[in-house]
Each structure stands twice: as C-alpha cells, then as structure tokens.
Amino acid sequence: MDKAEEVEYDLDEQDHAWLELVNKQRQEEGMGAVSYDDLEWIIDLLEKLWFDLDIVKADPAGPISTEDVPCDVCNDAECDNTNAIVFCDGCNLAVHQDCYGVPYIPEGQWLCRRCMLAPGMPVSCIFCPNTGGAFKQTTTNKWAHLLCALWIPEVGIQNHVYMEPIEVSTMIPRSRWKLVCSICKVKRGACIQCHKTTCFTAFHVTCARRSGLSMTNRTLDPNAIRAFCRRHSPMVSFTCF
Ligand SMILES: [Zn+2]
Ligand SMILES: [Zn+2]
Ligand SMILES: [Zn+2]
Ligand SMILES: [Zn+2]
Ligand SMILES: [Zn+2]
C-alpha cells in the first residue's frame, strides 16, 4: 500500500521538534529512527479512527448546546448520562430528565406536556402570570409551572418519577393568594416570600428566577428551599459590607 497517497496530515514544527527528541532517545537506546512519513501516517490513521468513532458522529452539536442551556426547573446546565437535558421539539424547552420526570428519552421527538396536550394553545399557570417554561397539569385539570409547584411549600407532586400531576391542596393559605409580587406588581396566583424572617417581600417563583434573585438549588437539597429578595440576598450583602 502506498502510504504517501492517502495521508492527509502534515507534520508541523511542534511535531518535528517532538520527533527529533524521540529519535535522539531511540538512538541512545540503540533503536532505529522514526521517519517523518511514518509519523504522518500514524497521526493520520489515528485521526481517521477517531473521526469514525460513534460518539463523535452521533451529535457534534450535542454537548456544546446542552452546556449552554440551563434546565428550566433547577436552572443548572450540568448533566450526565443518566440525567440528560432534553429539549422539547415543540417549544424548545430544556429540562433535566429527573427535574421534569422523563425516565426514558423516547426515540425520535420528545414533547413537553404542554406541547403534547395543548399544542398551539396558550396555557397559564395558576400560581403566576408568566407564560413559557416547564408546565405540568394539576390535579384540578389546570396548568402550572413545575418551578412554581416545587417552590410553594404547600404544593406537592403526586408521582415523583413522572413529576406530575401537581397537587393543589386546600393547604395553601389564603394569605398566599393575596400577596402582591414585588417584581411584576401583579396580584395573581400565589407568591413566596423572602427567607429573612423579618422581611415580607413577596414574589412569584418565576419572577424571582427571571430577575435573578438568590435561590437555593432545590435539586441539590430539596429541603433547603430558600429565596431572598434583592436586599437580603446573601451575595448582595457580601458585596455591600
Ligand atoms: Zn434540572
Ligand atoms: Zn414544549
Ligand atoms: Zn408559574
Ligand atoms: Zn411576579
Ligand atoms: Zn428580604
């Protein structure tokens, strides 16, 4: 086989320098020198083998795009093989398998609940005035953000594998429905309040997320659901004092 014909790799200065070092060593050990052509052929072969590997071919844009888009539920972009970020083919929603309850990624397309059950129809969250995001149905046949449901202490999820339906119980105090969001100023749905006990600042969960208020990572510690208003945000006080 004529090696020179098929080789697409050309040695650069660094390769030359490295080869000279190797050959010097080989000479000292009584071995023959490796030729430039041999090295070019080997690197070329390795590059072609690497290119043929399935992991590279499968989805060249995959790891890059998921790294940049955070999960709509936990706001984290990190993922692994057992808890990947899946994208809805209808609305491009990005969610972790565990966060949205997708135990198996289906072959072909995947649709979030909203795109599957109410395609093209506007749905609104019973807890906040914001549209878009990870929706699930409630036990009352309405819609709510999974994010809102997870952050309002009295709201539960019936099936934690599928993360649905959202259980709207009578446990939610009436006062919660009366709070006015300090961010969007809309008195609709149910707000949460600043974790500082002396502070009563209220906000919708989605408003807090969108305006970048300090919120603990619920996925890391489900019991530590703490959100702070801008004044009491741990990060802000750190930079102030
Ligand atoms: Zn997540
Ligand atoms: Zn969708
Ligand atoms: Zn909501
Ligand atoms: Zn709001
Ligand atoms: Zn506060």
Automatic annotation (TrEMBL):
Keywords annotated in UniProt: Metal-binding, Nucleus, Repeat, Zinc, Zinc-finger
Indicate whether Nucleus appears among the record's keywords.
Answer: yes
Q: Which Gene3D superfamilies match?
A: Zinc/RING finger domain, C3HC4 (zinc finger) (3.30.40.10)
What Gene Ontology terms describe what this protein does at the molecular function level?
zinc ion binding
Please give a single GO biological process term from the UniProt record. Answer: regulation of transcription by RNA polymerase II
- The residues that cross the membrane are none
Domain PHD-type residue range list? 68-118, 122-233
Which cell locations does it reside in? Nucleus
- SUPFAM superfamilies on file: FYVE/PHD zinc finger
Naming one, the record's GO cellular component terms include: nucleus
Recorded protein name is PHD-zinc-finger like domain-containing protein
Species assigned in the record: Piptocephalis cylindrospora
